[in-house]
Amino acid sequence: MRAGIAAWRSHTVGCMRLCDLASRLLSSPFAMVVLPRGCAGCGEPDSVLCADCRALFTVWPSRQFPGLPGGTLACARYSGRARSAVLAWKDHDDRECDTVFARYLASAVDMMLGRIGAASGVSGVGSDHRVTLVPVPSSGRSVRARGRPHMTVLSHAVCRLLCGEYGYDAVVADVLTVARHGGRSVSLSSAQQRHDRMGDRFRVRGRLHDGCLHDMGCRDVGVGTVILLDDIITTGSTLRGCADVLAAAGIHVSAAIALADTPPRGGSSRVS
Fold it and tell me: Over the stretch 65-111, which tens digit does the pLDDT of each residue have?
């Protein structure tokens, strides 16, 4: 029995490594010459994301959200070609979308920080003010299936843009982890069902002391303005669960940013 389990584990690890190698080869410049790619949203040849599909990521749907002063802001509506592009990146390992999506998320963060500043009576968040990006975590099972923690990778790309091109003092605090697997939120049937599943799903793997967040890498991260980064907003239950567990640890989230937003029934989201 033990020999069988060991063989199965070895086979699984080997398959994952082969899949990761294949993904790297297919995303290499050489592969682009031999096997030209298509747009992640519509399939138009020789484009990571064509001009028409890029325009879908500048819609900026937003919501008011209990407990988040800035509410939520997304780049696109989760439908049609925008949905196809997000799923190609998220579930089908289209890593070339990282750079494109990072730019739209960085724009959304900049827009949100301007709103937060305006609401507090100032022109915006200054470059000397710390901006902490907290990626919404995936379960270990999802990370293994995808080959990487996709939101953590994207959050670091967004952080580099915020620091290098927007002039913010931004950091990534990867301090949330999934304590248990609660099912894919987009596959659950109701808002209440999603909320119930989120109950104790998340944990904070750091601590707050003297205004600094000590993460698992033993860094001292001044908190400043905390923003959650996610891929898709459905009912908001995942964001609520993350914000609640962070608040319990003394870390108060100001807003949440996502690639795409699925408006809840009743159309309570608005376009900026």
Answer: 988 999 999 999 999 999 999 999 999 999 999 999 999 999 999 99
Give the C-alpha separation, 2 to 10, whole Å.
Answer: 12
Helix, strand or coil, per DSSP, at residue 65: strand
Q: C-alpha 97: how far from its chain's center?
A: 13
- Cα 211 to chain centroid distance, Å, stands at 25
- Could you give phi then psi for residue 97, rounded to 5 degrees? -75, -15
Element containing residue 112 per DSSP (H, E)? helix 97-119
> What is the value of pTM for the model shown?
0.77
Which of the 8 DSSP states describes residue 265?
T
pLDDT tens digits along 250-261: 889 999 999 999
What is the length of the chain?
A: 272
From 210, 229, 232, 233, select the one nearest 221 (Cα to Cα): 210
- Which of 90, 114, 52 has its CA nearest to residue 260? 90
| C-alpha 42, offset from chain centre | 22
CB atoms inside a 10 Å sphere around CB 264:
14
* Burial (CB count within 10 angstroms: exposed 0-12, middle 13-18, buried 19+), residue 56: buried
Give me the phi and psi of 222, to 5 degrees please.
-60, 130
Return all residues near 21 (Cβ < 8 A) that are at least 6 apart.
none
Both tokens of 119, joined, read 């609401």
* Cα gap 106→110, rounded to integer Å: 6
Query: Under DSSP, is residue 252 helix (H, G, I), strand (E, B) or coil?
Result: coil
